[in-house]
Protein backbone atom coordinates (compact mmCIF):
# COMPACT_ATOMS: atom_id res chain seq x y z
CA UNK A 1 0.00 0.00 0.00
CA UNK A 2 1.34 3.45 -0.88
CA UNK A 3 2.13 5.78 2.02
CA UNK A 4 -0.21 8.48 0.72
CA UNK A 5 -3.22 6.16 0.71
CA UNK A 6 -5.61 6.28 3.61
CA UNK A 7 -5.81 3.17 5.76
CA UNK A 8 -9.60 3.57 5.69
CA UNK A 9 -11.42 5.56 3.03
CA UNK A 10 -15.15 6.15 2.61
CA UNK A 11 -16.70 7.79 -0.42
CA UNK A 12 -20.40 8.68 -0.46
CA UNK A 13 -21.27 5.73 1.79
CA UNK A 14 -24.93 5.09 2.65
CA UNK A 15 -26.58 2.24 4.52
CA UNK A 16 -30.33 1.63 4.63
CA UNK A 17 -32.24 -0.79 6.80
CA UNK A 18 -35.66 -0.77 5.13
CA UNK A 19 -37.00 2.72 5.73
CA UNK A 20 -34.18 3.61 8.17
CA UNK A 21 -31.27 5.54 6.67
CA UNK A 22 -28.61 4.58 9.21
CA UNK A 23 -25.72 6.20 7.27
CA UNK A 24 -26.08 8.86 4.57
CA UNK A 25 -23.49 10.08 2.08
CA UNK A 26 -20.47 9.73 4.38
CA UNK A 27 -17.01 10.50 2.99
CA UNK A 28 -13.76 10.69 4.94
CA UNK A 29 -10.32 9.14 5.06
CA UNK A 30 -8.25 7.98 8.01
CA UNK A 31 -4.48 8.09 7.58
CA UNK A 32 -1.94 5.84 9.24
CA UNK A 33 -1.42 6.57 12.94
CA UNK A 34 -4.46 8.86 13.21
CA UNK A 35 -6.49 8.99 16.41
CA UNK A 36 -10.04 9.89 15.48
CA UNK A 37 -13.31 9.95 17.42
CA UNK A 38 -16.70 9.29 15.94
CA UNK A 39 -19.21 11.22 18.00
CA UNK A 40 -22.99 11.19 17.81
CA UNK A 41 -26.27 10.62 19.60
CA UNK A 42 -27.81 7.17 20.10
CA UNK A 43 -28.66 5.82 16.67
CA UNK A 44 -26.47 8.37 14.83
CA UNK A 45 -24.83 5.57 12.83
CA UNK A 46 -21.51 5.07 14.63
CA UNK A 47 -21.74 1.29 15.00
CA UNK A 48 -23.11 0.93 11.47
CA UNK A 49 -20.09 2.80 10.08
CA UNK A 50 -17.71 0.55 11.98
CA UNK A 51 -19.52 -2.60 10.79
CA UNK A 52 -19.23 -1.30 7.22
CA UNK A 53 -15.49 -0.77 7.68
CA UNK A 54 -15.15 -4.29 9.07
CA UNK A 55 -17.01 -5.73 6.09
CA UNK A 56 -19.70 -7.22 8.34
CA UNK A 57 -22.36 -5.41 6.31
CA UNK A 58 -22.39 -3.94 2.81
CA UNK A 59 -23.16 -0.32 1.90
CA UNK A 60 -26.41 0.48 0.05
CA UNK A 61 -24.47 3.11 -1.91
CA UNK A 62 -20.93 4.48 -2.16
CA UNK A 63 -17.65 2.71 -1.66
CA UNK A 64 -15.22 1.82 1.12
CA UNK A 65 -11.55 0.91 0.95
CA UNK A 66 -9.83 -0.59 3.95
CA UNK A 67 -6.10 -1.22 3.52
CA UNK A 68 -6.74 -0.68 -0.17
CA UNK A 69 -9.43 -3.38 -0.44
CA UNK A 70 -13.22 -3.58 -0.34
CA UNK A 71 -13.80 -4.83 3.24
CA UNK A 72 -16.95 -6.75 2.27
CA UNK A 73 -14.95 -8.76 -0.33
CA UNK A 74 -13.69 -10.86 2.58
CA UNK A 75 -9.97 -10.64 1.79
CA UNK A 76 -8.52 -12.57 4.74
CA UNK A 77 -5.38 -10.44 4.95
CA UNK A 78 -7.45 -7.31 5.47
CA UNK A 79 -9.68 -8.77 8.18
CA UNK A 80 -6.59 -10.04 10.00
CA UNK A 81 -5.09 -6.56 10.11
CA UNK A 82 -8.13 -4.99 11.75
CA UNK A 83 -8.88 -5.03 15.46
CA UNK A 84 -12.41 -4.52 16.74
CA UNK A 85 -13.80 -3.92 20.19
CA UNK A 86 -17.61 -4.24 19.98
CA UNK A 87 -19.85 -2.03 22.07
CA UNK A 88 -21.01 -4.85 24.33
CA UNK A 89 -18.05 -7.09 24.74
CA UNK A 90 -18.86 -10.49 26.22
CA UNK A 91 -16.74 -13.57 26.72
CA UNK A 92 -17.45 -17.06 27.99
CA UNK A 93 -17.60 -16.45 31.77
CA UNK A 94 -16.36 -19.95 32.58
CA UNK A 95 -13.01 -19.38 30.86
CA UNK A 96 -10.04 -17.56 32.36
CA UNK A 97 -8.76 -14.37 30.75
CA UNK A 98 -5.75 -16.29 29.53
CA UNK A 99 -7.87 -19.04 27.94
CA UNK A 100 -10.08 -16.44 26.23
CA UNK A 101 -7.17 -14.54 24.76
CA UNK A 102 -5.27 -17.66 23.71
CA UNK A 103 -8.43 -18.84 21.92
CA UNK A 104 -8.65 -15.58 19.96
CA UNK A 105 -4.88 -15.70 19.33
CA UNK A 106 -5.31 -19.09 17.63
CA UNK A 107 -8.11 -17.65 15.46
CA UNK A 108 -5.81 -14.86 14.36
CA UNK A 109 -2.87 -17.21 13.79
CA UNK A 110 -0.94 -15.67 16.69
CA UNK A 111 1.33 -17.43 19.19
CA UNK A 112 0.00 -18.12 22.71
CA UNK A 113 2.93 -16.09 24.03
CA UNK A 114 1.59 -13.06 22.15
CA UNK A 115 -1.69 -13.41 24.05
CA UNK A 116 0.15 -13.52 27.36
CA UNK A 117 2.19 -10.44 26.45
CA UNK A 118 -0.98 -8.53 25.61
CA UNK A 119 -2.61 -9.54 28.90
CA UNK A 120 0.35 -8.00 30.70
CA UNK A 121 0.16 -4.91 28.52
CA UNK A 122 -3.47 -4.22 29.49
CA UNK A 123 -2.67 -4.86 33.16
CA UNK A 124 -4.37 -8.25 33.44
CA UNK A 125 -1.29 -10.44 34.05
CA UNK A 126 -2.25 -11.10 37.66
CA UNK A 127 -5.89 -11.79 36.81
CA UNK A 128 -4.99 -13.97 33.80
CA UNK A 129 -5.84 -17.22 35.59
CA UNK A 130 -9.13 -15.97 37.02
CA UNK A 131 -12.45 -16.73 35.37
CA UNK A 132 -13.84 -13.90 33.22
CA UNK A 133 -17.20 -14.29 34.99
CA UNK A 134 -15.57 -12.70 38.04
CA UNK A 135 -14.00 -9.80 36.14
CA UNK A 136 -15.16 -6.22 36.70
CA UNK A 137 -16.51 -4.18 33.76
CA UNK A 138 -13.12 -2.43 33.44
CA UNK A 139 -11.28 -5.75 33.39
CA UNK A 140 -13.62 -7.17 30.73
CA UNK A 141 -13.11 -4.04 28.67
CA UNK A 142 -9.33 -4.37 28.97
CA UNK A 143 -9.58 -8.00 27.93
CA UNK A 144 -11.63 -6.84 24.94
CA UNK A 145 -8.96 -4.34 24.05
CA UNK A 146 -6.25 -7.01 24.30
CA UNK A 147 -8.37 -9.17 21.98
CA UNK A 148 -8.66 -6.26 19.52
CA UNK A 149 -4.89 -5.68 19.62
CA UNK A 150 -4.01 -9.30 18.76
CA UNK A 151 -2.09 -9.65 15.50
CA UNK A 152 -0.65 -6.09 15.44
CA UNK A 153 -3.64 -4.54 13.67
CA UNK A 154 -3.08 -1.69 11.22
CA UNK A 155 -6.37 -0.19 12.37
CA UNK A 156 -8.30 -0.46 15.62
CA UNK A 157 -12.05 0.17 15.65
CA UNK A 158 -13.33 0.64 19.19
CA UNK A 159 -17.06 1.04 19.77
CA UNK A 160 -17.55 3.11 22.93
CA UNK A 161 -14.47 1.65 24.64
CA UNK A 162 -14.65 3.83 27.75
CA UNK A 163 -18.32 3.39 28.70
CA UNK A 164 -18.53 2.35 32.34
CA UNK A 165 -14.83 2.70 33.04
CA UNK A 166 -13.50 4.65 36.03
CA UNK A 167 -11.31 7.70 35.30
CA UNK A 168 -8.01 5.96 36.05
CA UNK A 169 -8.79 2.97 33.79
CA UNK A 170 -10.04 5.38 31.10
CA UNK A 171 -6.83 7.36 31.26
CA UNK A 172 -4.79 4.16 31.01
CA UNK A 173 -6.78 3.16 27.95
CA UNK A 174 -6.19 6.50 26.22
CA UNK A 175 -2.48 6.31 27.03
CA UNK A 176 -2.36 2.87 25.44
CA UNK A 177 -4.15 4.16 22.34
CA UNK A 178 -1.67 7.05 22.09
CA UNK A 179 1.23 4.58 22.17
CA UNK A 180 -0.41 2.39 19.52
CA UNK A 181 -1.10 5.39 17.26
CA UNK A 182 2.50 6.53 17.79
CA UNK A 183 3.55 3.14 16.43
CA UNK A 184 1.45 3.70 13.28
CA UNK A 185 -1.86 2.04 14.19
CA UNK A 186 -4.91 3.98 13.04
CA UNK A 187 -7.35 4.31 15.93
CA UNK A 188 -11.05 5.06 15.43
CA UNK A 189 -13.21 5.15 18.52
CA UNK A 190 -16.82 6.08 19.06
CA UNK A 191 -17.94 7.89 22.15
CA UNK A 192 -20.70 9.78 23.90
CA UNK A 193 -18.27 11.12 26.50
CA UNK A 194 -17.27 14.21 24.59
CA UNK A 195 -15.42 15.99 27.37
CA UNK A 196 -12.95 13.21 27.90
CA UNK A 197 -11.92 13.30 24.23
CA UNK A 198 -10.24 16.70 24.51
CA UNK A 199 -6.52 16.15 24.15
CA UNK A 200 -7.06 12.42 23.55
CA UNK A 201 -7.82 12.41 19.83
CA UNK A 202 -6.55 14.71 17.12
CA UNK A 203 -9.73 14.70 15.09
CA UNK A 204 -13.45 14.46 15.75
CA UNK A 205 -16.09 13.41 13.22
CA UNK A 206 -19.55 14.46 14.39
CA UNK A 207 -22.45 12.36 13.11
CA UNK A 208 -26.11 13.28 13.23
CA UNK A 209 -28.80 10.96 11.87
CA UNK A 210 -26.25 9.15 9.74
CA UNK A 211 -24.67 12.26 8.24
CA UNK A 212 -21.30 13.87 8.98
CA UNK A 213 -22.08 17.37 10.27
CA UNK A 214 -18.52 18.34 11.22
CA UNK A 215 -15.05 16.86 10.79
CA UNK A 216 -11.83 18.39 12.07
CA UNK A 217 -9.49 18.99 14.96
CA UNK A 218 -10.65 21.02 17.93
CA UNK A 219 -9.23 24.28 16.54
CA UNK A 220 -10.93 23.74 13.19
CA UNK A 221 -14.24 22.85 14.85
CA UNK A 222 -14.01 25.98 17.02
CA UNK A 223 -13.33 28.14 13.97
CA UNK A 224 -16.21 26.53 12.08
CA UNK A 225 -18.65 26.99 14.96
CA UNK A 226 -17.62 30.60 15.69
CA UNK A 227 -18.89 30.20 19.25
CA UNK A 228 -17.94 32.97 21.68
CA UNK A 229 -14.97 32.65 24.01
CA UNK A 230 -15.55 33.32 27.70
CA UNK A 231 -13.13 35.29 29.81
CA UNK A 232 -13.31 34.82 33.57
CA UNK A 233 -11.97 37.70 35.64
CA UNK A 234 -11.22 37.86 39.35
CA UNK A 235 -11.09 41.43 40.60
CA UNK A 236 -8.59 42.52 43.25
CA UNK A 237 -11.18 44.65 45.11
CA UNK A 238 -14.91 45.45 45.15
CA UNK A 239 -14.59 48.30 42.60
CA UNK A 240 -15.79 47.11 39.17
CA UNK A 241 -14.01 48.68 36.16
CA UNK A 242 -16.33 50.42 33.65
CA UNK A 243 -15.34 48.09 30.83
CA UNK A 244 -16.51 45.12 32.96
CA UNK A 245 -19.62 46.69 34.49
CA UNK A 246 -22.72 45.99 32.41
CA UNK A 247 -20.80 43.78 29.96
CA UNK A 248 -20.09 40.89 32.27
CA UNK A 249 -22.06 38.36 34.22
CA UNK A 250 -21.29 38.34 37.94
CA UNK A 251 -20.71 34.75 39.06
CA UNK A 252 -19.09 35.40 42.44
CA UNK A 253 -18.35 38.31 44.82
CA UNK A 254 -15.35 39.38 42.69
CA UNK A 255 -15.70 36.90 39.85
CA UNK A 256 -17.07 37.97 36.45
CA UNK A 257 -17.50 36.31 33.09
CA UNK A 258 -17.33 38.13 29.77
CA UNK A 259 -18.16 36.66 26.36
CA UNK A 260 -16.49 37.82 23.16
CA UNK A 261 -15.99 36.70 19.59
CA UNK A 262 -12.78 34.79 18.81
CA UNK A 263 -11.43 37.75 16.83
CA UNK A 264 -11.96 40.17 19.75
CA UNK A 265 -10.32 37.89 22.27
CA UNK A 266 -6.81 39.39 22.14
CA UNK A 267 -8.06 42.99 22.50
CA UNK A 268 -10.05 42.01 25.58
CA UNK A 269 -7.17 39.99 27.01
CA UNK A 270 -4.77 42.93 26.62
CA UNK A 271 -7.22 45.24 28.33
CA UNK A 272 -7.76 42.81 31.22
CA UNK A 273 -4.06 42.05 31.64
CA UNK A 274 -3.21 45.76 31.60
CA UNK A 275 -5.77 46.70 34.29
CA UNK A 276 -4.32 46.41 37.83
CA UNK A 277 -7.86 45.96 39.23
CA UNK A 278 -7.90 42.49 37.58
CA UNK A 279 -6.20 40.02 39.92
CA UNK A 280 -6.56 36.92 37.75
CA UNK A 281 -8.00 35.84 34.42
CA UNK A 282 -8.87 32.60 32.73
CA UNK A 283 -9.86 31.95 29.10
CA UNK A 284 -12.62 29.38 28.62
CA UNK A 285 -12.75 28.03 25.07
CA UNK A 286 -15.98 26.37 23.89
CA UNK A 287 -15.96 22.78 25.06
CA UNK A 288 -16.53 19.82 22.79
CA UNK A 289 -20.01 19.44 24.32
CA UNK A 290 -20.85 23.03 23.35
CA UNK A 291 -19.48 22.50 19.83
CA UNK A 292 -21.47 19.30 19.47
CA UNK A 293 -24.65 21.06 20.60
CA UNK A 294 -23.93 23.87 18.15
CA UNK A 295 -23.52 21.58 15.13
CA UNK A 296 -26.68 19.64 15.95
CA UNK A 297 -28.70 22.85 16.48
CA UNK A 298 -27.36 24.17 13.19
CA UNK A 299 -28.68 21.16 11.33
CA UNK A 300 -32.03 21.31 13.11
CA UNK A 301 -32.20 25.02 12.19
CA UNK A 302 -31.71 24.18 8.52
CA UNK A 303 -34.63 21.74 8.82
CA UNK A 304 -32.56 18.71 7.76
N1 LIG B 1 -29.70 -4.47 11.83
C1 LIG B 1 -30.44 -3.38 11.82
N2 LIG B 1 -31.72 -3.40 11.37
C2 LIG B 1 -32.49 -2.29 11.36
N3 LIG B 1 -32.07 -1.08 11.78
C3 LIG B 1 -30.80 -0.99 12.24
C4 LIG B 1 -29.94 -2.12 12.30
N4 LIG B 1 -28.75 -1.71 12.80
C5 LIG B 1 -28.87 -0.39 13.07
N5 LIG B 1 -30.09 0.05 12.72
C6 LIG B 1 -30.59 1.44 12.83
O1 LIG B 1 -29.64 2.28 12.23
C7 LIG B 1 -29.49 3.50 12.96
C8 LIG B 1 -28.04 3.66 13.39
O2 LIG B 1 -27.73 2.69 14.38
P1 LIG B 1 -26.27 2.52 15.00
O3 LIG B 1 -26.28 1.32 15.87
O4 LIG B 1 -25.26 2.58 13.91
O5 LIG B 1 -26.14 3.86 15.88
P2 LIG B 1 -25.07 4.28 16.96
O6 LIG B 1 -24.66 5.67 16.62
O7 LIG B 1 -24.02 3.26 17.08
O8 LIG B 1 -25.96 4.31 18.28
P3 LIG B 1 -25.61 4.01 19.84
O9 LIG B 1 -24.86 5.20 20.32
O10 LIG B 1 -26.96 3.91 20.45
O11 LIG B 1 -24.83 2.75 19.89
C9 LIG B 1 -30.47 3.40 14.12
O12 LIG B 1 -31.66 4.05 13.74
C10 LIG B 1 -30.69 1.90 14.26
O13 LIG B 1 -31.96 1.63 14.80
TrEMBL record:
InterPro entries: AAA+_ATPase (IPR003593), ABC_transporter-like_ATP-bd (IPR003439), ABC_transporter-like_CS (IPR017871), ABC_Transporter_VariousFunc (IPR051782), P-loop_NTPase (IPR027417). PROSITE patterns: ABC_TRANSPORTER_1, ABC_TRANSPORTER_2. It comes from the Bacteria. Pfam families: ABC_tran (PF00005). The keyword Transport applies. Keywords: ATP-binding, Nucleotide-binding, Transport. GO terms for molecular function: ATP binding; ATP hydrolysis activity. Residues 8-234 form the ABC transporter domain. Transmembrane segments: none annotated. The keyword Protein biosynthesis does not apply. PANTHER family: ABC TRANSPORTER ATP-BINDING PROTEIN ALBC-RELATED. This is ABC transporter ATP-binding protein. It comes from Roseicella frigidaeris. The lineage of its organism: Bacteria, Pseudomonadati, Pseudomonadota, Alphaproteobacteria, Acetobacterales.
